[in-house]
Amino acid sequence: MEKVSLIGVGLLGGSLGLALRRRNLSKCVVGFVRRTGSVRECERVGSVHKATQDLEEAVSGADLIVLCTPIAQMRPLVLQMRNVIKAGAVITDVGSVKASVVRDLEPLAARAGSFFIGSHPMAGAERMGSQRPAQTCSSKRFARLRPREGQTRPPSRKSRNSGNRLAAACFGSNLTCTTRW
Questions:
Q1: Longest dimension (CA), the chain
Q2: d(CA 12, CA 41)
Q3: In terms of C-beta density within 10 A (0-12 exposed, 13-18 middle, 19 or more buried), how is residue 136 classed?
Q4: Where are the domains of the chain?
Q5: Which sign, positive or negative, has the C-alpha torsion 122, 176, 136, 66?
Q6: Assigned architecture for domain 3-179
Q7: For residue 147, what pLDDT band results from cuts at 50, 70 and 90?
Q8: Which of 61, 117, 122, 137 is paired with 178 by a 20 to 30 Å CA distance?
Q9: pLDDT tens digits for 5-42?
């Protein structure tokens, strides 16, 4: 993948960024953060190649967009970014619930010419924040990345590979992970 955008670079987003970078699965991992201090912290820790407070800059041209924010923030963020989402991009999330996320985000992604595929990593920890990403996404964990029944499958191999690479990168080779198209 050329570019992966992590929307929120806390514990899960930061761990995902480290895993993507460690396995060289994206040429550019960009993180969107809210605070100026988080920009420097994410880059210092190495979670991303570049961190920014500009959502459009973070998302523009991304092959894969991973929402690593609280569920209540996901829909407003996708509404803000929808005009710069690359056609054919895969959007996913690390939220713990799926019904409301899929209901809210799948139609928005479709209108932007992209695909929303819900994922559910079982990779959290009792700590939070961008300074603690460590090995959350590479230890023995379980994840599920699967379109819902009847959902249109991404037409291009490149889009499907983005989902497969997310599963491999984020959730690691030591992890039970299912990805179905």
A1: 43
A2: 15
A3: buried
A4: 3-179
A5: negative
A6: 3-Layer(aba) Sandwich (3.40)
A7: low
A8: 61
A9: 999 999 889 988 988 888 888 899 999 999 999 999 99
